[in-house]
Design brief:
The chain is an alpha/beta fold and 435 residues long. It has 15 helices and 17 strands. It has a 9-stranded mixed beta sheet, sandwiched between helices. It has a 6-stranded antiparallel beta sheet with strand order 3-2-1-6-5-4. Helix 4 (47-64) packs across helix 5 (71-86), helix 12 crosses helix 14 (346-356) and helix 13 (326-339) packs across helix 14.
Length: 435
């Protein structure tokens, strides 16, 4: 075990050294010349063939030029160069690591990675900004997205369901800024979130009942707080015989449901032509006979169509929104509607919000990286022209003698007043009696 750790440390030391970068650049240049000689034939090679080719060339060059490295270091160089020619270079291991949630790159020498909600500096770097751009363009190539001085920002969905955002000069100063958000291949279920401590059993039962009763739910929280994961989990409570339409800027949701129509907005071209917004998709979705509409993130003019849909028979709809508290969530809805040109009065808008939304779930990320539901609030109507709500559950961690904290949620002892939940309870009670 000690030898394994020492070898791992030696690997990291060598890979992060200037010597490694210098030798790698030298062999890389040689390989480019060899590939040019091979021409189109190289493009037809499998990854294993490329790996074999790189291994042989590396060993040959190291012997020929008497490069002072051992066989293990030669193998490390060969592995790195194989990733350069057949994969995504220094990013490949992180992209394949299921524990990695976010990869944040601020120029070629500053790379951070988020694992289990905790951000830390990664022990790797690119040779220079040109090297970074070469890998970024390779990631973008299958998507067909353009990245150059005339179009210096790209936000796109990756083939594996993840998301990449790139900003280059002249909009950034110290090299390309790349943000990659990864998503689990198997979305977390309510049972998984319960085990992870996102909420407790009583809250899980309430959330299941709210979804099955076709309550309209907004999940509110900050960036990387777990909104999408929670929305995915809640959607598993939707009955199989219902048709679900999801609408997103960049498709991230992966609902565990048999009948899902996934829609994704489209940015316009350089001159703005061809743009299809979430608002356009939301309007069109109403003609698609949806039982439920799920908006990945409410952040623009689509808020008006969403509220109208929730008020006109599309019960059970859900969405996420960036806000720091349930009350702030309501303020944000009002603000977005105002920006979208809402023509009615403030009271009329608040009445629409109060009639449309049944529950607001506030979720947050703790300093240790854990995601927790901070509160569950029910919208109860309009009181003195203000949207009234009552908090049903609140997160209040219990301090421990050792300075740590234990998860604890306080039930306020209030039963939901929503008529939808009351009706569902009555149906379940009748079914129980009949059985």
């Amino acid at each position: 075990m000690t030898l394994d750790v020492e070898f791992s440390d030696d690997r990291q030391t060598f890979q992060n050294s200037q010597e490694f970068q210098t030798i790698k650049a030298f062999i890389h240049e040689h390989l480019l010349n060899r590939i040019e000689e091979l021409g189109a034939e190289f493009g037809r090679w499998s990854r294993s063939s490329i790996q074999q080719f790189v291994n042989l060339e590396c060993e040959s060059l190291v012997r020929l030029h008497r490069v002072p490295i051992n066989s293990q270091e030669t193998q490390l160089l060969a592995e790195a160069l194989t990733k350069e020619f057949a994969g995504f270079g220094p990013l490949e291991d992180m992209l394949n690591d299921p524990a990695v949630e976010d990869i944040l790159i601020n120029g070629s020498k500053q790379i951070y990675v988020s694992k289990h909600g905790v951000l830390q500096k990664a022990v790797l770097n690119f040779a220079d900004n040109a090297h970074l751009m070469r890998i970024v363009r390779r990631i973008l190539a299958p998507i067909g997205r353009r990245l150059d001085e005339s179009n210096p920002m790209v936000d796109a969905r990756l083939s594996d369901g993840g998301r990449i955002n790139v900003v280059i000069e002249p909009l950034v100063i110290n090299g390309p800024v790349v943000s990659i958000r990864k998503f689990r291949k198997d979305p977390l279920t309510p049972e998984d979130l319960l085990k992870l401590g996102t909420f407790d059993l009583a809250m899980a039962q309430l959330l299941e009942m709210a979804v099955r009763a076709r309550c309209n739910i907004l999940i509110s929280g900050g960036t990387s707080s777990g909104k999408t994961a929670l929305l995915n989990a809640l959607a598993s409570f939707v009955p199989d015989n219902e048709r679900v339409v999801t609408i997103e800027d960049t498709a991230e949701l992966a609902l565990n449901h048999p009948h899902v129509v996934r829609m994704e907005s489209r940015p316009g071209s350089y001159d703005g032509a061809g743009n299809v917004s979430i608002r356009d998709l939301l309007r069109n979705s109403l003609r698609m006979r949806p039982d439920r509409i799920i908006v990945g993130e409410v952040r623009g003019a689509e808020v008006i169509e969403m509220l109208q849909a929730m008020n006109t028979g599309h019960d059970g709809s859900m969405g996420t929104i960036h806000a720091s508290s349930p009350r702030e969530c309501l303020y944000r809805l009002e603000m977005l509607a105002g920006f979208a040109g809402y023509q009615g009065s403030e009271v009329s808008l608040r009445r629409q919000i109060a009639n449309a939304i049944d529950f607001i779930i506030q979720i947050g990320r703790l300093p240790n990286g854990g995601r927790r539901i901070i509160s569950i609030s029910e919208i109860t109507g309009l009181n003195d022209n203000v949207v009234a709500m009552q908090e049903l559950f609140r997160y209040e961690p219990q301090p421990l003698p050792d300075g740590d904290e234990r998860d604890r949620w306080i039930s306020l002892g209030i039963s939901p007043h929503s008529p939808k939940i009351v009706r569902l309870r009555q149906v379940l009670q009748r079914q129980h009696k009949d059985s």
